[in-house]
Write a structure and sequence with these properties.
The complex is a heterodimer. Chain A is an all-beta fold. Chain A contains no helices and eleven strands. The N and C termini of chain A lie far apart (about 35 Å). In chain A, about 35% of the residues are buried. By secondary structure, chain B is mainly β. Chain B contains no helices and eleven strands. The N and C termini of chain B lie far apart (about 40 Å). Classes of the chains: A mainly beta, B mainly beta. The interface between A and B is medium-sized, with 22 and 26 residues.
Chain lengths: ~110, ~110
Amino acid sequence: KAGVTQTPRYLIKTRGQQVTLSCSPISGHRSVSWYQQTPGQGLQFLFEYFSETQRNKGNFPGRFSGRQFSNSRSEMNVSTLELGDSALYLCASRTSGGRETQYFGPGTRLLVL
Amino acid sequence: GENVEQHPSTLSVQEGDSAVIKCTYSDSASNYFPWYKQELGKGPQLIIDIRSNVGEKKDQRIAVTLNKTAKHFSLHITETQPEDSAVYFCAAPLRGGADGLTFGKGTHLIIQP
């Protein structure tokens, strides 16, 4: 099976812009989670989607949003970018939820100037 | 919510020696503890996990132990090899059962030739 794919892999934006990142889960996986990874804060949970519904949300401002499509592909959007949003954004998928293994994609490296 | 602490932050061992990384968690209801390995430029990759109904699990040179009473779990790597050099993360469920993971800050494992 193909793994989790994320596009684009690298992105440079300026403050105030918005950005949309895409994630395609492993075939058959219906749950998609997003994480932000920074050197200072480490890996932090953003939100999780299952069957097009957000099931859980981390402690991030409303500028961070996401959605999931009927084919389980997911997008996350960050509006009004700030310098501190520079990070590696990781997507992880699993079949449904609970104590199932999450499989991570390679991430999208976002740099905000 | 769950809080996971990981140490050490950096661990340097001679090739062939063993490495041990320790994590503690706060939520006694947590029941699933994965370990991820992240190499430069890649997303985290699951290397082993343990569920709360067992105390130890092994997979070749890698083992994980869980002490539910003390609320800590450890990763053991024996006969370390150069390809073991990476950053290792422990994790636990966000709210003791499902929907996202909370991660430790990571351990940079360096294998000295």
